[in-house]
Amino acid sequence: MSSGLRKQFEEFIELTNAEFDYILSHFQVKKFKKHAIIIQPGDAVYLEYFVEKGLLKTFTIDNDGKEYILQFAMENWWVSDYQAYQTGERAIYTIQCLEDVELLCLSQQDRNKLYEEMPKFERFARLKVTSGFLHTQKRVMALLQNDTLSRYKQLLEQYPSLFQRVPKSMIAAYLGVSRETLSRLQI
């Protein structure tokens, strides 16, 4: 089970079968149907999720009803409201299933237990968080420096399968533009 999770760990650290099995024993499998909300604003967040199968979006809606998509999470990605997960504050984002999903869930308690017991796991988490932070910085800089067409093409190049799985309105919300603006582009 979870060859995707194993592969992700091995991008950063080497694990024996026994070590990986021990880590995996701390995860729970949860399945949700398309459209299910797994986190909503105001929730206490005790879990982070590794996507085994399916697609989710993390988003917020402003006072005018405009949706802003922070993240899509597909197979082999991690997702949670990390501010709430890390700080104990209440969730500010909504995470919704765009397809039927199968998730591996790791609680804060089990994550902290693994940190204490396995320096390799703590190293993985540190390197994975750093990688995620660098990705976020690149995305912010792209939003600040690149025009919509450039951001669209970059997203298409990086994640071509995403365009087969979500409507253009969601791509527009992720890029921070209206559906109409996206439609006017010469794509």
TrEMBL record:
Say which domain of life the source belongs to: Bacteria
In what residue span(s) does the Cyclic nucleotide-binding domain sit? Answer: 30-116
Q: Which UniProt keywords apply?
A: Kinase, Transferase
Q: Which residues form a coiled coil?
A: none
Q: Read off the InterPro entries from this record.
A: cNMP-bd_dom, cNMP-bd_dom_sf, RmlC-like_jellyroll
Pfam families listed in its UniProt record: cNMP_binding
UniProt GO molecular function: kinase activity
The protein in question is named: cAMP-binding domain of CRP or a regulatory subunit of cAMP-dependent protein kinases
